[in-house]
């Protein structure tokens, strides 16, 4: 599959809770009537399967966001597994909080969509890395909806649409991290770009952090623990640090090595821990059936052993890919406020 991509309709059922992406419009589908509810209204906990619709087209942000290219057009980029296939958008299934969610995939030219605070500006900025299992990018559920909240806190917020799909290869029956992870390259570039443009965006270059969900959360852990890049320096942007000043990890995976059983918490051999990693907040639901609770626990213990401040907010229920859509599950209504309190304790807000 690294060179021949299966159709998304063939892989999404197994990944549905690990991914999302988006489209500025909602697909017209009579079978979905009555599902949509306003974001501020508590939605149902139950998730309803809906028909998935994919269409060719480049994702565009909803009003308020300014989308910019992550790399100069003249810079050749390694393409994802889909090669030259045109970018596409679509909706995911099942619903989350009673509403559809949307994804973008076959991304060959990554972008950064920036949202500026309309009132008070704290000088802080947050880079958002949506999930999607490295098959797609969750552009609303775990992207623009997070920025809606962040700008209300007085933060500049930027959503990364990174290159996908990129399948993690199998070796001896076990999944391995790609030697060159395209999403990490894009995330590092995005962090450096925010620092390079900090004056233009009225950002304090010492208050630029990152939040990631699922696959995006793995990218957060990866970029938190290294400054090394797998691409050559492109321009002056890459002279700025790619390590975040704070990190928030929501329902992560790909960190815990389960080969020794559930009673042991070693990290995967590709996970490196640095004492220079930033203060980290971890959010996870105990009943997450997609990403085992042992992934964040193993990571938290490793950070703590390295002397890195780490906080955990664990919840009994919530499952996976709940984003910021309130339901009866406590995590969905509580974690944004927990993030705000934590950021204030770090001197970010």
If helices are DSSP runs of H or I spanning 4 or more residues, what is the number of helices?
6
Order of helices and strands: HEEEEEEEHEEEHEHEEHEH
- Helix content, binned percent: 10-25%
Strand order of the largest sheet: 2-5-8-6-11-12-13-14
Count of DSSP strands: 14
Instruction: Give the distance, in angstroms, between the N- and C-terminal Cα atoms.
Output: 44 Å
Largest sheet: 8 strands, mixed
Give the overall pLDDT as a whole number.
89
Radius of gyration, in Å, reads 19 Å
User: Low-confidence stretches at least 5 residues in length (pLDDT < 50)?
Assistant: 1-38
Roughly what fraction of the amino acids lie in strands? Answer: 15-25%
Q: Which structural class fits the helix and strand makeup? A: alpha/beta
The rough form would be described as: globular
Top keywords for this entry?
349 residues; globular; eight-stranded mixed beta sheet; alpha/beta
Question: Would you mind describing this structure in some detail?
Answer:
This protein has 6 helices and 14 strands. The protein is of the alpha/beta class. It has an 8-stranded mixed sheet with strand order 2-5-8-6-11-12-13-14, sandwiched between helices. A 4-stranded antiparallel sheet has the order 1-3-4-7. A hairpin with a 2-residue loop joins β9 and β10. α3 (182-196) crosses α4 (215-224). It is globular and about 50 Å long. Residues 1-38 have low confidence and may be disordered.
